Every structure is written in C-alpha cells, then in structure tokens.
Amino acid sequence: MTSTTKLADQYRGEGCTISFELFPPKTDKGMQLMERNVERLTQFGPAFFTCTYGAGGSTQTKTLDVVQRVRQATDLPVASHLTCVGLTVDQLCDYLREAKQRGADYIVALRGDPPQGSTEFQAVAGGLRYANELVELIRSEFADEFGIAVAGYPEVHQEAIDAATDLTNLKRKVDAGADVVVTQLFYDNDDFYRFRDACDQAGIHVPIVPGILPVTNFRQAERIAGLCKARIPDQLAAAMNAVEDDAEQFEIGVEHARQQTIDLLENQVAGIHYYVLNKSDAAEKMLEGLSLGKV
Question: Which candidate, 219, 224, 214, 205, places its Cα nearest to that of 252?
Fold first, then answer.
C-alpha cells in the first residue's frame, strides 16, 4: 500500500487491517532499536504505523522525527497523534503543516489528558477544549489532506458521566469528519463487542477498530490499565499472579492477546490496532501464523 491510500479505504474489502502504535524514544539508541523493531513488524503486513507523544506535547518534535523515519524506511502511511493540550489554534495548524511536510498521512485527533495532578482539562487561551473541535479544525483548514482517527472507550471514558454521554461525544467526533474510531486498550473482548453494538445503535457507522496491548509484565499492565480504567479479567490476573518469572508472565500475557486476536478475527473486525511499546517480540509471538492483512 502506498502513502496515498485514504484512511477510510484501509478498512474496506476482505481481511483484517492491522496497524502498530509507536512512541518517540528518548535516546538515539532507543531510536535505532525502534527502527529495527519497525522493520521486524513489517513482516505482518501492517497498513500503517502511528506515533504518539508525551504528556503536554513534550515530545512533539521527536514524534515528527519518528513519523519521518518510519515513512522513509517503510514507505507505509504514518499517523501522528495530536492533542489540544497547551496549543492554540494557530499552533495546532503549524504542527499540522509541519506534520504534512514530514510525511504524515493521518492524524489521531485527541483532546489529551489533564495535566498531572489535575482532574479537569483546561484549554489554553485561543485553544480548543474538545476532540471534535480538533477534527473540525483539521477538516476546515486541511480539507482531505489527512485521514483522521479518533479514540473510543469500550469501558467508558473515565471523565464521562455515563456510557450514553460518552457515545454522544464520540458521535460528535465522527460527525465532525473522523474516518475511523480506534479504541482504548481492553482485555475482555465482550467489552468491545458491546461497545461496537452500541456505536451502531447510536448511528456511528465508521469502522470501530479494537486496540490491543499484550500484557508482558503484570505490574506494568496494572499501571497502564489503571491510567485508562481498563479492567483486567480475574482469570488473567490470577494466572499472572501465580507466577513470578518474567518469561512466564510474558508467555501468559502474549497468549491472552493472541486469543483475543483470534476471537476478534472470527467476529469479523475490520482491523486491529496494536500498542506494541516500540517492541516486536510480543507481536511476533502473538501474530505468528495468523491470517492477517487485506486481500
């Protein structure tokens, strides 16, 4: 696939589109390691890569470095995350222009998290408050130059009053021009299926793409799941708590993610987005031998 493929088109046709999410490494050595892992991940035929950035936009420049390097190394489309945190509308437009120059094809449009120690998001003067406003900005100022993905929450966003309100907010983002919804990580597929059905009933008819993060270290998984209020099933928690060896925890967690993937494929998801934490070993073991990719 070439960089000209529209984001919505990635999820049309037979088969399951997969994509991988990266984050900007802090060191040159980390960047080199990430690039090697990207090379290994391409064996699974991803449609594109995405790259996030740190809290408050702290790694925006490095994010674009990753976008450019991955784009050059793979010739695959690459998406940059973009949040409303700490940026005026003019600064957001500046970032989008540079992202386009550096090779970004898609944008993952997010509101962003409140600052550490705060429970409430505060927009800067001249900035945006909601992700749907960011989608509207991209569509109004850049027309169809970028494909746009937005976030969905199978277990409800932690700031939402209830699931219905959360879906209403999601529909605003889709109605503003989002091409696809990529979900927050989850560990019980039933949570995703309920969410997908609810989206359909709410009139959200773009692809709903599940996001999967293999549990390779239980303490780390508990920390990450706690940040986004994702539930770790009792059976998985018990299995991982029963072993102390890191290698055994890795095997249990990766097998759980593999079974999640197989079940999602059987339930005909349009795509799966993998949070790989810049590593390829878990993904290689998880995806080995599975029939993935579009035909």
Answer: 214
Helix then strand count (H, E) for the chain reads 10, 9
What the block records as the tokens of 246 is 């890191």
Interacting residues of 72 by C-beta distance below 8 A, sequence separation 6+: 103
The token pair that represents 272 in the structure block: 């799966």
Predicted confidence (pLDDT) per residue in 131-172, tens digit = 999 999 999 999 889 999 999 999 978 777 788 999 999 999
Which residue in 157, 170, 231 sits closest to 198, CA to CA?
170
Question: What is the spatial distance between Cα 210 and Cα 273, in angstroms, rounded to a whole number?
Answer: 6
Q: Which residues are catalytic?
A: 21
Q: How many residues belong to the chain?
A: 295
Token pair for 123 = 């927009």
**Domains of the chain as residue ranges with CATH:** 8-294 (3.20.20.220)
The residue ranges of the chain whose pLDDT is under 50 are 1-3, 295
CA of residue 15 relative to chain centroid, distance = 20
The sign of the dihedral angle between the CA atoms of 136, 138, 144, 149 is negative
* CA atoms lying within 13 Å on the CB side of residue 133: 15
Burial of 114 (0-12, 13-18, 19+ CB in 10 A): middle
User: Is the model's pTM score more than 0.70?
Assistant: yes
Q: What pLDDT score does 157 carry?
A: 80
Whether the CB-CB separation of 199 and 169 falls below 8 Å is answered with no
Closest CA relative to residue 281, chosen from 78, 77, 53, 36:
36
